[in-house]
Amino acid sequence: MTHDLAALKLDLADPGMAVRLAAAQSLEAAFHTELDEGRREWAPLVAEFLPLLVQGLGDRHKGVQVHSANCLEFLAYQSEAVVPALREA
User: Fold this and answer.
1) Residue-level pLDDT at 3
2) Cα(38)–Cα(54) distance, integer angstroms
3) Is the pLDDT of residue 1 over 70?
4) How far apart are CA 8 and CA 14, in angstroms?
5) What gap in Å lies between CA 57 and CA 67, rounded to an integer?
6) How deeply is 29 buried, as exposed, middle or buried, from its count of CB atoms within 10 A (0-12, 13-18, 19+)?
7) What phi and psi, each to the nearest 5 degrees, are found at residue 17?
8) CB of 13 within 8 A of CB of 52?
9) How far is residue 87's CA from residue 89's CA, in Å, rounded to a whole number?
10) pTM over 0.85
11) What does DSSP assign to residue 79?
12) What's the CA angle centered on 3, arms 26 and 42, to 5 degrees?
C-alpha cells in the first residue's frame, strides 16, 4: 500500500479540520487500493480504524462524516465487526 496508515490514523484524530478531511479521503482511497491489490485479510485494518471511523461520523465537518461513512460501508462488506460497532455507538 502506498498510503502511510500510521500517519492517516494520527491525522484522523488531528484537531485541524482540513487534516481530518484529507485523512478520511485518503483512507477511503487506500481501502479501495488495498482491495484492488488483492488484500484478503481486513481484520487488522478494521481493528485499527473502526473506532476512529465511528467517531468520524460525529465530526463537525460534513466531508469527514461522509468519507468516514463510506469507509465504514466498505469495511462492513469485509468484516462482521462493523455493524455491531455502529449499533453500540
Assistant:
1) 72
2) 25
3) no
4) 10
5) 9
6) middle
7) -60, -45
8) yes
9) 5
10) yes
11) -
12) 90
